[in-house]
Amino acid sequence: MAWSDKDVSEKYTYVYSRVEVKTCDRKTTTGWVYTIDPITHSIVLLYDNQQLVTILGHAVREVLVKDMPNKDMKNRLDELLESKEPDHSPEVLEERKQKVVAWLLENRFPVKANGDIISVANALEIMPPYSASSCQTGNEVILNRIQRLLEAMPI
């Protein structure tokens, strides 16, 4: 039975299994299923090298189970996405905030620090710990640009 014809509940039985995914462009990918998107039917796989990849649902032709789910792999997959960011002391956070403000100013963005929040051009806010993932805005263009800039910031 084709992937697109399977019921969502049947697709969820693949979670934590080692599978071989065949795509419409005749490529084959093998990995452990971390999750399946119920809307797009995309599959998130973990390769043996610990890399996560998403295979878009519309490209999936067939999924073959190679190994059934086991408790060890379930625990490994669940631990993979747990937050590994250390707790930061107030001193470390303040130093990071100052570096981010300086970096944004150096790149000619209007920046205001108001308490723990950094405001960029009154369009985006950066919350502690002042990383690319702690940016908040409704404007995807600004969000994307500031996140790329923060990822490129020297340490």
Helix and strand content put the structural class at alpha+beta
Extract low-pLDDT stretches. Answer: none
Radius of gyration using CA atoms only: 21 Å
Q: Would you tell me the overall average pLDDT? A: 90
Quaternary assembly? single chain
State the separation between the terminal residues, measured CA to CA: 51 Å
**Quick one: how many beta strands?**
9
Structure commentary:
It contains 4 helices and 9 strands; from the N terminus they run αβββββααββββα. By secondary structure, it is α+β, with helices and mostly antiparallel strands. The mean pLDDT is 90. The protein folds into 2 domains: 3-80, SH3 type barrels, CATH 2.30.30.100; 90-151. Helices cover 28% and strands 28% of the residues.
Features:
AD domain-containing protein, Gemin6_Sm-like_dom, about 160 residues, alpha+beta, 2 domains, Gemin6_C, SH3 type barrels, AD, five-stranded antiparallel β-sheet, four-stranded antiparallel β-sheet, 4 helices, about 30% strand, single chain
Itemize the secondary structure elements and their pairings:
Elements: H1 8-11, E1 18-23, E2 28-36, E3 43-46, E4 52-55, E5 60-67, H2 71-80, H3 90-106, E6 111-114, E7 117-120, E8 124-126, E9 135-136, H4 140-151
Antiparallel strand pairs: 1-2, 1-5, 2-3, 3-4, 6-7, 7-8, 8-9
